[in-house]
Every structure is written in C-alpha cells, then in structure tokens.
C-alpha cells in the first residue's frame, strides 16, 4: 500500500512551494511521485518540480475528480506498478474541490492510503476569496486535516483573526502558522482525520466508467471552467527581467476581467526566469527550470486581448 498525501489550496496559495518543502524536509530519503493537475495548459508547476528532481505526472487539460474519465484512476495504477513509490503527492488544481479529489483517491484505496489532506490558505486574501469564490475556497478548508497559512505579513493579530475564521469552517483540523521549514515532519505525516472526510470514506466506492474510446487528459473541468478562465501564451524569446515585467504589467494594468493568478517560465539572459503573480504581489526570479510559457487565470479574461497586451500589440 502506497501512502498518498493531497496538497490543496486556492489559486496562488503556495501548493508547489509546500511540495518542494515536504520533499526536502519530510520525504528526503524516499521515492516520491507527484500527480499535478494544473488549471490551463502551461504545465509550469510540473516544470518547477521536475527541476528539483521530483518525478511528476501531469493531468493538465482534464480534471482529477471527473469520474467518467479514467485518467486519474489509470495514472495511480500505472505509477504504483511502474515506479513503486514510497509516497504519492497529489496537487489538484487551485479551483478544484478537495472533497471531489478525496473521492477520486478513495476509488484507488486498493493501491493507496490517504495519509493527510492538506490545504494551504493565503492569510492575506482569506476574506476576498471566501466572499467571491465561496464553494471552491470553503470546501478546501472544510475537508482538510492540516491547514497551513501562507503569505503572512507577520501581524500576529491578523494571523489570529484568520485562524479564527478558519475554525468557523473547520474546528477539527490542525492549523499551523509557522514557517514551513520549522514544522516537525510528524505534523505532515500523521494526524486525526476530520469527520467530513470520515463521512466520505463511508460512502460506497465506485470505479470510474470507462468510455469505449478513452481520450487521455480530456475530461471536462465542470463548474470551475464555467467560472474561471485560463490564457496560456508561448514566449520563445530571450528576455531581461525588465522586459518580462513590462510585458506582465501591460497585461495586469490593462486587461479586462480579474486576474487571480499568473505564472510562467521563460528564457532569461542567464537561464530560466520564473514569475508568480497573485493580486498585489509580482515576483520574478532566476530558476534552473526551462520553459517558454506563461499563464494567466482569472474571471472574465479575454484571451486575444491578453495575448496582444503581452506581445505589445495593444
């Protein structure tokens, strides 16, 4: 039986960073496979993880939790058979419901054992995301065994206020506001299962219904795709940090709709250059990973407008 951990969190909360931390501090001597389900087609998080020598299986255009698609069901079986990992980490889309991801993992309880359902919560944007994206955001908190705060400002009063609001949704989960590197490994590895998940575990487990012709990675994202939009742009040219920021700021300042998340890896003057954007914060840094794509996720986005702004055509 392979141990499985789900690392959930809304767009830009810090799931990939947490997985890197766990690989380095918690599972450093073990064989790890990450199943990464990105919203959009960029595969940027997967590239970042692979650069850290983590084995990654991507389900980019489909949805882990769609029971009619056999992608995730088959991926688990293939991973266990071919790689025999000690640990599988599942990183679902930031707009996926944790309860649905748990159900999908329970369909493979013949091969995997869910050890921890972890959710990363952006402490600075709790109120905004709960108000505007309630179902997606609240569900990820309600079904978590372990909740970790990210993007903290250091304001103890604000942190305690956020923890109080989290407890209004989930009183049973362990909540940690410490630096992730300082949290003992045991906190990540073991803990009490919350009642909401226990109820899911009691439900009859059904294997997915495979269509006669299986289109790999093509299942619908359902309600999330009706609300959120992703725009992926190819960027093969070599850029300086200033040129990249100029392109990004044109999109952020003049694009219609609301951009909730931006990320990408492009060619820099001295290697790869990665950027991360969440409202109010844009970060650009050099990385060993290689890539030529950027991705924006949000609501009401206009694909052609964003592409034209990025390319400097508007």
CATH topology of the largest domain: Rossmann fold
The topology string of helices and strands comes to EHEHEHEHEHHEHEHHHEEHEEEEH
Q: What is the CATH architecture descriptor of the largest domain?
A: 3-Layer(aba) Sandwich
The rough form would be described as: globular
Q: Note poorly predicted spans.
A: 210-222
Instruction: Compute the CA-based radius of gyration.
Output: 19 Å
Oligomeric state: single chain
Which strand order do you get reading across the main beta sheet?
3-2-4-1-5-6-7
What CATH first level of the largest domain would be assigned?
Alpha Beta
Count all strands and give the number. 13
CATH homolog superfamily of the largest domain: P-loop containing nucleotide triphosphate hydrolases
Number of helices: 12
Task: Report the structural category.
Answer: alpha/beta
Summarize the main sheet: 7 strands, parallel
Q: What level of helicity do the residues show?
A: 25-40%
How many structural units, i.e. domains?
Answer: 2
Distance between the termini: 55 Å
Structure in words:
This protein has 314 residues and is of the alpha/beta class. The chain folds into two domains: 2-202, 3-Layer(aba) Sandwich (Rossmann fold), CATH 3.40.50.300; 228-311, CobW-like, C-terminal domain (Hypothetical Protein Yjia, Chain: A,domain 2, 2-Layer Sandwich). The protein is 35% helix and 26% strand. A seven-stranded parallel β-sheet has the order 3-2-4-1-5-6-7, sandwiched between helices. Helix 5 crosses helix 6 and helix 11 (241-254) packs antiparallel against helix 12 (303-311).
């Amino acid at each position: 039986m392979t141990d499985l951990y789900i690392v959930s969190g809304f767009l830009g909360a810090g799931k990939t960073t947490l997985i890197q931390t766990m690989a380095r501090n918690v599972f450093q001597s073990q064989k790890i496979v990450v199943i990464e389900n990105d919203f959009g087609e960029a595969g940027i998080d997967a590239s970042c993880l692979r650069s850290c020598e983590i084995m990654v299986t991507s389900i980019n255009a489909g949805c882990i939790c769609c029971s009619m698609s056999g992608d995730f069901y088959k991926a688990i079986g293939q991973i266990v058979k071919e790689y025999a990992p000690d640990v599988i980490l599942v990183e679902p889309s930031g707009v996926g419901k944790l309860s649905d991801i748990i159900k999908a993992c329970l369909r493979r309880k013949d091969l995997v054992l869910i050890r921890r359902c972890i959710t990363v919560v952006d402490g600075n944007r709790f109120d905004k995301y709960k108000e505007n994206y309630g179902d997606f955001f609240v569900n990820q908190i309600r079904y978590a065994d372990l909740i970790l705060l990210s993007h903290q400002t250091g304001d103890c009063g604000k942190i305690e206020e956020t923890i109080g609001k989290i407890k209004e949704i989930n009183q049973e989960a362990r909540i940690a506001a410490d630096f992730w590197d300082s949290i003992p490994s045991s906190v990540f590895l073991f803990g009490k299962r919350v009642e909401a998940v226990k109820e899911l575990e009691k439900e009859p487990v059904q294997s997915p219904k495979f269509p006669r012709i299986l289109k790999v990675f093509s299942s619908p994202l359902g309600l999330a795709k009706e609300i959120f939009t992703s725009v992926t742009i190819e960027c093969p040219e070599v850029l300086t940090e200033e040129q990249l920021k100029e392109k990004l700021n044109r999109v952020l300042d003049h694009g219609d709709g609301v951009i909730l998340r931006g990320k990408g890896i492009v060619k820099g003057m001295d290697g790869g250059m990665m950027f991360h954007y969440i409202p109010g914060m844009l970060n650009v840094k050099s990385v060993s990973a290689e890539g030529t794509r950027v991705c924006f996720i949000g609501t009401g986005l206009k694909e052609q407008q964003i592409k034209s702004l990025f390319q400097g055509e508007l």
